[in-house]
Description:
By secondary structure, the chain is mostly helical. It is built from seven helices and six strands.
Amino acid sequence: LPLGVRVIGTIKTALRKIGFDAVFDTSFAADLTIMEEATELVHRVTNNGVLPMFTSCSPGWIKFVETFYPEMMPHLSTCKSPQGMLGAVIKSCYAEKIGIEPKKIYSVSIMPCTAKKFEASRPELGRDGYQDIDAVLTTREAAQLFKMFGIDLAKLEPEGADSPFGERSTAGKLFGASGG
């Protein structure tokens, strides 16, 4: 495909074709993240909390602060990244909605950064003996998987994302539209 072609919908179709039961859009969780971060910031401002508040969805950046500037830890937002939030929502709200034990859901994230693999293994992204995200594929690995299955994105019709709360959704675009 030429550069710049939108493939988000066709990636969702491709994932369903290779056996994924449900496909969620992380931008939904990005919107949850920014709402949580705004709530946390308001709470810090109105209650004389630690300021300034720093936030990043990059696990590499978070690990950098933890390792080299531990004195700055109180300034970090306590909110999970969109990957972490969506993993938690899938293994809580969605699991309850479809009537399945969270530990029986195998959750896979597709992310552009290899550091997201490390993030998914962090203890705070799990509970009760299981992780919220079971595996992370980089976008390159997902492309290789599609190739292995003979999937041609150019020949697929785009589909919408599933919603952890009901019908397929196109909601969850504040984060991306605002620049993050």
